[in-house]
Automatic annotation (TrEMBL), chains A, B:
Residues engaged in binding Mg(2+) 2: 72, 101
Chain ranges of the PurM-like N-terminal domain: 55-165
Keywords (A to Z) from UniProt: ATP-binding, Kinase, Magnesium, Metal-binding, Nucleotide-binding, Thiamine biosynthesis, Transferase
Protein residues bound to ATP: 148-149, 238
Record-listed Mg(2+) 3 binding positions: 57, 101, 236
Any one GO molecular function term: magnesium ion binding
Name of encoding gene: thiL
Protein name: Thiamine-monophosphate kinase
Pathway per the UniProt entry: Cofactor biosynthesis; thiamine diphosphate biosynthesis; thiamine diphosphate from thiamine phosphate: step 1/1
Residues involved in substrate binding: 79, 289, 339
Length: 343, 343
């Protein structure tokens, strides 16, 4: 993926408020000027799909059926900490996290409505920077800002609702896996968890991992590609690989078998684990928020760039230790490997 | 409109969590059980427009173009106070406020995604009741819950993003007024502001006004009706009548002339104003959050049930005291009547 600077474009950051944004508070600048900054970041005027953009009561989209929608919130001190990230990264990350759910249906991302809550005393430049990050995220997805809302809250909350379209094709559910499918992921896993561990330890090395925690950059165009290649089931890895495999397995009533050595890992992961005395497997298998796509395909139909990590099997009788729907990592049911969320 | 009880249906309030919801916290019950309660309130399974409802990565809708979307947040201590309302009212009101923006495009409401933030110590029954209110609101609009998100925040925040469709017809913008149009509203104004004043004064009389503040119940089916009757411009009264008239006037570059005595008022309004020593005109002209619809129509095309309150005029020369785009209430430019937001 390109870096941040490549995706900037020349948009006004400061709307129609003439004062000093660094020293002014959100309350001083006011909602209208701040919303104009947000709207300017990813203007819909060049997007033929947007009939009416932000500024009227609601946005109006001319998109082919089916319409796809999902929402995601990022909350200060729960999903991010100001000492470990930047306002622009918070905005971009919120867009990507919400957009990943659209890609996870095999759909194309069209645009987003964004609600930003923050304390009235917040520097206006913080909201302008969050807006800039929202714009970077949307432009990187060829998507438009469809509307915004600014409210006063006790901590910063960014809620992004993303709209997409299947463009007349299938929506790929997460429960569609079939016995005999191969399991594949669209990119490396574990970077976000490793980056978080590095930030928590105060280690300033491994900038790619730290950057991946601040803003994951999965290739979400792989969602529609997976659909076209015939994916039977599709989701994104937001809660950790094992958690997503368990959800898909239970939804389909099938066994998901994964070879942990085949899971693609970020370059710096092993070195970072050694430095921190951490278990890189934990980051890869249970770390969340990478937002790579996870799918099952009929054998031979896996798209270029994806990595096969396992296969889907019927729960054939005999081994009573294996439930009908379960996840096996290297042949061992995950419940016995000790990942807490599933014990 | 029917009252709350008429619109309840037999849905589980307590999901698959078996404990005591009154004494349990949100943190104890967990997100999955709470989301199942939310999803159960306005299930999409009987709605042919919803191909995939909540539970997958995103919801999928088969709706005719154009798709309409808007978002609105209700924040504790900013938009509502627990001592003056109930969790169910907060949920229902959030849905109606967001849905009014869809109706204000002349569109039909299809469904909503709802993000609820609250402190982890919040009683699970509070979230269950907010969810019930969301369900009452959606069912009253023949709309479905399309997805939900629960996050831990320091104060309660309910963000509702509503989707609708123009069903192949026009979207009615707020800037489309033409000289010669008549201005009309779909229902009485001032009830919400009066209800708020009564609550603030601790007066327990005039239950209709207090109920209207807790949950406004405009007839949002009047949005598509206004479109079919040929409305040139349409919005909803969320910020107060004068504020909305000023927005429409400026957007169209025309003069909006209103006769204040023609504005429909709630039955109890005059008596409440006398009791509180308040000015009922202030509630009617500047009180927000009634969410009635406000439109301009060609003369003779005003739908049944709407009330004509004025007319749209060109700013013909001569009187320099009247700007090209302005609002006249009883012939007096609003800037001179002293409503603070426009001074």
């Amino acid at each position: 993926m390109s870096d941040n600077d490549d995706r900037r474009c020349d948009v006004p950051l400061h709307g129609d408020w003439e004062g000093d944004w660094e020293s002014a508070s959100v309350a001083q600048v006011g909602e209208a000027a701040l919303l104009s900054v947000l709207a300017a970041q990813a203007r819909a005027r060049d997007d033929e799909r947007v009939v009416i953009g932000s500024g009227d009561d609601a946005a109006v989209l001319d998109i082919p059926s089916a319409t796809v929608v999902s929402t995601d919130s990022a909350v200060e001190d729960r999903h991010f900490r100001w000492e470990w990230t930047t306002p622009a990264a918070v905005g971009e990350r919120a867009v990507i996290a919400a957009a990943a759910d659209i890609a996870a249906m095999g759909a194309v991302i069209v645009g987003a409505v964004v609600s930003i809550g923050c304390p009235p005393s917040t520097s206006a430049s913080v909201v302008a920077e969050i807006s800039r990050g929202v714009g970077v995220g949307l432009r990187g997805l060829q998507a438009s800002l469809l509307g915004g809302d600014l409210v006063a809250t006790r901590q910063t909350v960014v809620t992004v609702t993303v709209l997409g379209t299947t463009a007349g094709r299938r929506a790929v559910r997460l429960d569609g896996a079939r016995a005999g499918d191969v399991i594949a992921v669209s990119g490396p896993l574990g970077a976000s968890a490793a980056g978080l561990a590095l930030l928590a330890a105060g280690v300033e090395r491994f900038p790619e991992l730290i950057a991946a925690h601040r803003v994951p950059r999965p290739d979400l165009s792989q969602g529609p590609i997976a659909e076209r290649c015939g994916a039977h089931a599709l989701t994104d890895v937001s809660d950790g690989l094992v958690a997503e495999l368990a959800t898909m397995s239970q939804a389909a009533g099938l066994v998901f078998e994964v070879d942990s050595t085949s899971i693609p890992r970020p370059r710096e992961l092993a070195d970072a684990a050694v430095l921190l005395g951490a278990d890189a497997d934990d980051w890869v298998l249970t770390g969340g928020e990478d937002h790579q796509l996870l799918a099952t395909f009929p054998p031979g139909t896996v798209p270029s760039g994806w990595t096969v990590i396992g296969r889907v099997a019927d729960a054939s009788g005999g081994d009573e230790s294996v439930d009908r729907a379960t996840v096996l990592i290297d042949g061992i049911p995950t419940g016995r490997r000790g990942w807490q969320s599933f014990d």
